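Entry 14. Structure prediction run on the chain below.
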Amino acid sequence: MVKCTNKGCGKEFDEEANSGDACSFHSGGPIFHEGLKSWGCCNDVNKPVLDFDDFMKIPGCTKGRHSSQAPKQSAPQTSTISTQPTASQPKVKPITTTSENGVETFKNEQLLMISQLSLNPTPSATPPPPVEDEDDVDVGVSPGAKCLRQGCGTEFLSQKESRIEGGEHSVCTYHPLPPIFHEGSKGYMCCKRRVLDFDDFLKIEGCKTGKHVFVKKALVGTSGQEFGEFVKCRIDHYQTPDKVHVSVYAKKADKDQSKITFAPDEIHLDLSLPQSKRFMQTLTLYDSINPDSSSFTFFGTKVDLLLDKASATSWPFLEKPSEATIANLPPGYGLTFGVGGRTGATTPVFDLDNKVKAEPK
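Output returned:
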């Protein structure tokens, strides 16, 4: 038996029984844009999805023979952001994003890259371990079912061989954290390796060992309801002088089963999603807010948070970074642009430190 290398297939096949339409695969390449994932060959038929597991389940749109040949490598992707170096420090062309109400936030490439990282609130703080799925060993599994952990895909043989500790195929090598796709680079948040080609991404070996998960054990939420698995949701934000607008892209979140709590320096998110999925995260904010005057609104595709700043300072991050990260920020990181004045001219809004630096002497 040989494993098929066609995109979206990955099944084992016998060459003697490899007929002309035995394989269902994707003839185009994957597309990752602003958290959405789809295939270029059928994105007009199969809707883009947010969750990577749902992306891997998108059925192939092309019929043909299974293949054991190595896939062709894609050309490396390059960034189109231009730079203008100076003698003191490289300057990066600003990236402008415009909100619905006309407020613009200017970032540079260095700050954009730093803001994508998972930053600890303090240098000594240790992030909580990820909540991982457990296998429900009381539920029977048919031979051939694949392990659900990312990066594994081992097929179930028997209870003794695949589930009982010490079994010949009971050890699972997997990725405990979700994949990350940024400007053509692909990898997992739990390990450092990054690749450009999607086929190379699928070959990244797991960085942790444990037990297989063939049937996910139900998880119990704060309201007593059961959840099948925890998921990661994309979070974006922009700011005005007195507010921070946060969008959590949790599609079809159940308002009645979810819970959002505001504290002066933190936000606690516990969102109930379709198909027994759940998103939980605590945001340690860059600066203080007024909890009583902050609010949230549920929409079909996202949950919007409106944070009322305790002081009119600029937030270069949504969450508080470490002191080492702050020391490495480029000049002007505390600068926010808003629309003001009778003509709607763009005016800078400084925090106190940057205001002193910007005032003419």
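Residues 74-127, 333-358 have pLDDT under 50 and may be disordered.
Filed with the rest of this week's runs.
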